[in-house]
Amino acid sequence: RYLGIPLLASRLSHMDCKVLVDKLLRRTTLWLSNSLSFGGRLQLLKSVFFSIQVFWCSTFVLPVAVTKECGRILRSFRWHGVGNSKKGGKVAWSKVYRPKEEGGLGIKDARSWNRAAIMKIGWDICRRKGSVWTNWCYAVLLKNKHFWAAPIMGACSWSWRNILRTREVMIHKVLYEVKEGNLFSLWFDPWFMGASIVNKFGMTVIQDSGIPRDTKISSVISEGRWNRPRNSWDLIQISYFTVNLSLQTSSDMIHWMKKGSTFSLHEAWRAFIPHSPIVP
């Protein structure tokens, strides 16, 4: 173990996460929680207990059984002051998990937060964050592939497979801003109407254009203007769209949901939870 978490590359088992579960149980038995008010227990849940889970959620894809057990401990502590009570709660825990504006208490469940934290890893890879982890992903896992086009194969590790699965949600949250076109892939990055050209038109559009697969957007920009081939119906449609995209002499940028915004773990978490009407 290193910093309290197991060092392994395979899928986590329930026994691997026993340290996390035992730590939560130990905290609930050490405190004289029966003398605390509901507000006091809620504050401990949001600060201390949640921070214990965050460290693991940001590193591994936790088994569903472990996240459920963590939720059971928190639920028991919330209503009864101990982490191993067998009694039921006063309100369904699914309602307690809701944000405050939707009638809940704003407690974040470990399962949804875990998926949002894994999405942040995908965001770092997408933006090519300058870190050893990101460089290793491109050198070993992706090699000559693009992040958005990398297939999920049986040979993929458990963690890498789950990182790639977050693309289904993340593609609706990222905003690609094309300026000079030196950073984005022409065919595989989702800069074209919120998706990649290959996803919208298929692989045949690459053959029709005669442009290589690994080219950047800058290859179809000449003297600050778009210069795309128009020898097929799909390429003509693409040209009509790109005419309205203004170009600038600066680096391409990736935004989170809107221009000028960076990744928000809270907003990513909200993408994985069910939503309810706003309450008074």
TrEMBL record:
Protein name as it appears in the record: Zf-RVT domain-containing protein
Provenance organism: Cephalotus follicularis (Albany pitcher plant)
Organism placement in taxonomy: Eukaryota, Viridiplantae, Streptophyta, Embryophyta, Tracheophyta
